[in-house]
Design brief:
The complex is a heterodimer.
Chain A: E1 7-11, H1 15-18, H2 21-33, E2 37-40, H3 53-56, H4 58-75, E3 79-81, H5 84-99, H6 101-112, E4 124-126, H7 127-142, E5 152-155, H8 165-168, H9 178-184, E6 189-190, H10 206-209, H11 211-227, E7 232-235, H12 238-255, E8 263-265, H13 266-273, H14 292-295
Parallel strand pairs in A: 1-2, 1-3, 3-4, 5-6, 5-7, 7-8
Helix pairs in contact in A: 2-13, 4-5, 4-6, 5-6, 7-9, 11-12
Chain B: H1 4-16, H2 18-22, H3 32-35, H4 47-55, H5 59-63, H6 76-80, H7 87-100, H8 106-118, H9 126-134, H10 148-160, H11 163-166, E1 169-170, E2 175-176
Antiparallel strand pairs in B: 1-2
Classes of the chains: A alpha/beta, B mainly alpha.
Chain lengths: 296, 185
């Protein structure tokens, strides 16, 4: 706790800082606006990706994730993330290590080689949960200066934010509400679409195994959202952002399509509604372009 | 080496607990996993079939099929399985065993190379540093890629668990051996 509010350790991961820094910038700006301080996690690595590295070797995945948790523990802070992959890995690792004392002992033997120890004293939070539960919808609503009244939004959750629910703890993975609430607080309309909860296609090494095949999943999602008149897609995951945004250039090339469907991370969308500029949210340095409707 | 089921329980059990892995035995082949699978509608990957193949020990058939790698780990089947089979975790462990036995594509092995070289599966380069500056952030984030001594800790983990050997990593060139063969097998 700081004098003015809360301080969190920001686990950056890979894609947010190294491909979509607009997500990092928008999130930090909004948190600061509400008196939440962000501290960098010096020396943090890849989370590492739960579906990708988890598929290659769980026994390597775990100590790398645990080392990242140690950094926040040493800072005495709880973590926040801007990627479902980071959320998936760090929260799952924390959960497993807290549940299995022998596993904790084994993992600490690896970490002790360079003087670190996992203790189990931090907590892994997703940035959109901090927005929804810590800052709260009422306070968010007070700061909306550019309401999105005529904007239809397709919500995309990604997978590892909601599932498995026994680890994530956000209630039913079939009837989520957090992103919907955050979209509606801006005045925008959240529009249901076919297979709303479907995966973007990128996870689990699928994108690396066969990128064109993985883009077909993405194409289906974008078609479904477009068919019901959505103006843009809002999501909570940097890895999905890569697949949904850059993926459109890739699929236009692979399938001969002509997609330019606006993709926004939740804090970029909220940022625009709170009066941040397109440039401040890094929405001018990505593949898909923002229509006037979102910027006015 | 035991049967595939025994190996799943042994290797996965060390991380998830044996009971978690033993849930595979509860599979009644109802197909609810495949019914909700986003990969199943786009690829030849069949979750129900994979579990049956695992239970009757068709190890090589599973390990040699490219479809094994078309699950995106979305956890839809995990949430919906009426018998509580810990599907996605079992799939990840089957892949772990396949990878240990050399069934790992070059692009998948390359992800490990990026992490061994930078600490990140998706490292930063000069163009991306400019993007960071454009939104008012410091050009390089304070992660393992910036601090050598921090990166060395990640490298130590990979050596300890022998991940480097699994992907046939060459510490002299900081790259893969056997690229031309598409893997060790």
């Amino acid at each position: 706790m700081t004098e003015n509010g809360l301080t969190y350790a920001y686990f950056l991961g890979c894609i947010t800082p190294n491909r979509y820094p607009g997500i990092e910038a928008a999130t930090k700006k909004i948190f600061k606006e509400f008196g939440i301080e962000t501290k960098e996690m010096v020396g943090a690595s890849c989370c590492p990706a739960p579906g990708v590295f988890g598929s290659f070797d769980m026994h390597t995945w775990l100590p790398v994730a645990a080392r990242n948790l140690c950094i926040a523990e040493e800072m005495g802070l709880e973590i926040y993330v801007t990627c479902n992959g980071c959320y998936g890995s760090l929260q799952e690792a924390d959960h497993l290590l807290k549940d299995h004392p022998k596993l904790k002992e084994k993992t600490n033997k690896v970490l002790n080689e360079f003087g670190r120890e996992y203790k189990g004293t931090t907590k892994v939070n997703h940035s959109i949960v901090i927005l929804h539960d810590v800052i709260g919808l009422d306070k968010l609503k007070e700061r909306i200066t550019k309401p999105m009244n005529d904007v239809n939004v397709a919500v995309h959750y990604g997978c590892h934010f909601l599932k498995p629910r026994e680890v994530r703890g956000h209630g039913s993975s079939e009837t989520p509400y957090i992103l919907e609430d955050l979209v509606k607080v801006t005045g925008a309309k959240e529009v249901d679409y076919k297979d709303k909860l479907m995966c973007c296609g990128a996870g689990g090494g699928n994108r690396t195994a066969d990128s064109v095949q993985s883009l077909e999943w993405t194409r289906q999602k974008l078609v479904n959202a477009t068919m019901v008149g959505c103006d843009c897609m809002v999501h909570p995951c940097a890895f999905c952002h890569l697949q949904l945004d850059r993926g459109q250039a890739e699929m236009n090339k692979a399938f001969g399509t002509n997609f330019n469907f606006p993709i926004l991370f939740a804090t970029q969308f909220l940022g625009l509604a709170m009066g941040l500029s397109e440039k401040e949210c890094g929405l001018d340095i990505q593949t898909t372009t923002m229509p006037e409707k979102l910027l006015k | 080496m035991g049967t595939l089921y025994e190996d799943i329980v042994a290797y996965g059990g060390e991380v998830f607990g044996e009971e978690h892995m033993e849930s595979l035995r509860e599979c009644v082949q109802c197909g609810k996993c495949t019914g909700g699978c986003p990969s199943g509608r786009n690829t030849a990957f069949r979750t129900r079939k994979l579990f049956q193949m695992a239970l009757v020990d068709l190890r090589e058939e599973i390990f040699n099929s490219p479809e094994l790698w078309f699950c995106s780990t979305c956890f839809t089947c995990y949430e919906r399985c009426p018998k509580g089979v810990k599907t996605t975790d079992i799939i990840r462990i089957i892949r772990n065993l396949a990878a240990k036995e050399g069934h790992m594509s070059v692009p998948h092995r390359m992800i490990g190379v990026y992490v061994l070289k930078t600490g990140h599966a998706v490292p930063i380069g000069e163009p991306q540093m400019k993007l960071r500056e454009a939104v008012g952030l410091e050009s390089q984030p304070p992660t393992t890629q910036k601090y050598k001594e921090q990166l060395e800790q990640v490298q130590t983990i990979f050596r300890t668990t022998q991940y480097d050997a699994m992907i046939d990593f060459d510490w002299d060139t900081m790259g893969l051996r056997g690229m031309e063969k598409g893997g060790k097998k």
